[in-house]
Amino acid sequence: MGLGLFGWRLVFTKVLKVQKIRGTIAIIGMQKVGKLVAEELFRKKHLGLEVTYFVGPERGEVTLSYGNPRRITIPVVPPEATLSLVKAEGISRILIAGPERGQRFPAHDLVTLRLSGIPIEDCHTFYERLMSKIFITDLRPSWILLSNGFQRTAWIMFTKRALDIVVSSLGLLLAAPVALITAIAIKLDSSGPVLYCQERVGADEEPFVLYKFRSMQCDAEAATGPQWAAKDDPRVTRVGRIMRQLRIDEIPQLMNVLKGEMSLVGPRPERPFFVSQLKEQIPYYELRFTVKPGITGWAQISYQYGDTEDDAIEKLQFDLYYTKHMAPIFDLQILFETVKVVLLGKGAQ
Question: How far is CA 269 from each of CA 147, 206, 264, rounded to the nearest angstrom?
Answer without folding.
Answer: 26, 11, 12
